[in-house]
Design goal:
It is a single chain. This protein is α+β, with helices and mostly antiparallel strands and 205 residues long. The protein contains eight helices and five strands; from the N terminus they run ββααααααββααβ. It has a three-stranded antiparallel sheet with strand order 4-3-5. A hairpin with a 5-residue loop joins strand 3 and strand 4.
Length: 205
Amino acid sequence: MEAERGRDAQGGCCGMYEERALGEINDGLERALRTRPLPGSVTARLGFLLRAEKGSTKRLAGVLGVSQRTVQRWVTSGPGRRTPGAAQMRVIEEVVRARWQPRIRERLRVRAEARGFSVHTRARFGFASVAGSSDDPRRRLITQHLSGAVARELFAARDANAGEAQQMVILARALGHAYFRDGGGRAHGLQVAFSDVEFANFAID
């Protein structure tokens, strides 16, 4: 959920911004690829980006698509300081995400796609059999190791900007095979429906 207060880049009062939700599955993938959390405040995020641009407000302005004067007003500690508006907050966050720990992210992704990863999730699971019978969905807490092929499919969906619904289909199919059908050893033909995800945490071994 987005939570913003404040005015636009040229407005007056200070604002608060909470990291926007990307969907529980996508958000869990993002967390799994970091060894340190993203900078939490807009001041810390701007400071990180400014250091990456060698202190150049002009270069940072080009990256963020605003004027150099606007960036100067964001980063000053003096009375002329302004707070980015909601749209600028989103751009800043996206750029920070893209630049945060790039080598670590790549290394962890390669490892997950080669060895697999574990998912720890609480969600609503329902079931249907090939005979047409079905069970009412109920909430379950599940921890399961999934293969590198599943990791590759989830990351590819994320790279293609797939929505949460498509990612849930991928996870439902994977958990149906690995957890509910015991890797194909039982409950043949059981189909799993996956919805109302409370959280999805991924651990890369």
